[in-house]
Amino acid sequence: GLFSTLPRFEGRDMIGEVSTRESYIWGKSAAAVASHTHGMPAHPETNRKPPSKRFKVVAMDFGVKWNLLRSLENFGCDIEVVPAKTSAKDILARKPDGVFLSNGPGDPAAAPYAAETVREMLGKVPIFGVCMGHQILALAMGAKTYKLKFGHRGGNQPVLDKGTGRVEISSHNHGYAVDAQSLPASAQVTHINLNDKCVEGLSVPSQNAFSVQYHPEACPGPHDSIQLFERFVASMEKK
To answer: Annotated catalytic, 22?
Structure first.
């Protein structure tokens, strides 16, 4: 049947299939310019006066959504997007204020080079990961990921911020999750899904790194989690 002929997700490095082949400056490539004029508009929350200070961010492209780059830009970031297989040495040589780990498709464990790169950067630069980037950060910390029996899809997933007690309605599109039991003591679970209790956010305070499993830019979707971009900017300001 049809399903027997479809390729398996497990063990397939889909990041390597979709990542950009060359580095580019966001806003200066043909694709980015087109996305600004023809893509969805940014959220009202991010249509604000840009901060006076700009931050240089390197985004590792695991299959990045342009609306994530738009949101970072609106929060004061100048962004260089680099291929997923860019080395830690090459990224740090760009002297970024922060590194962003993007969303992306497939099995995170099938791209061990990405976790190794992030492992080499931990503690050297502020890191913010979203979706696949969240899973890659967890793998870099020595944790494990697993395939959910039922993936999270859609724009109405309830997530608890354990630090504030606030419940966010959030946008999800993922089939893998982080195994909470495999996380080292240095990593804190900051967010959980209220439907199935899986890990939705991590923080590694000693390494100035954090991540969320869902999409804070939520285009389309709810805007409850937009403050995560402010948290990333604050971490770069402190650094």
So the answer is: no
Respond yes or no: is residue 219 known to be catalytic.
Answer: no
* 235 phi and psi angles, rounded to 5 deg: -70, -35
Which of 202, 196, 204 has its CA nearest to residue 175? 196
**Predicted local confidence at residue 3, as pLDDT:** 55
Query: Rounded to 5 degrees, what are φ and ψ at 160?
Result: -95, 125
- Find the catalytic residue in 134, 215, 219, 223: 215
Q: What is the C-alpha to C-alpha distance for residues 84 and 102, in angstroms, rounded to an integer?
A: 9
Residues with Cβ within 8 Å of 192's Cβ and at least 6 positions away in sequence, in order, are 159, 160, 162, 198, 199, 200, 201
Does residue 215 carry a catalytic annotation? Answer: yes
Q: What was the pLDDT predicted at 221? A: 64
Q: What's the rounded Cα separation, in Å, for the pair 168 and 54?
A: 28
Residue 167, pLDDT score: 94
Dmax over CA atoms of the chain, in Å, equals 58
Question: CA–CA separation, 147 vs 142, rounded Å?
Answer: 17
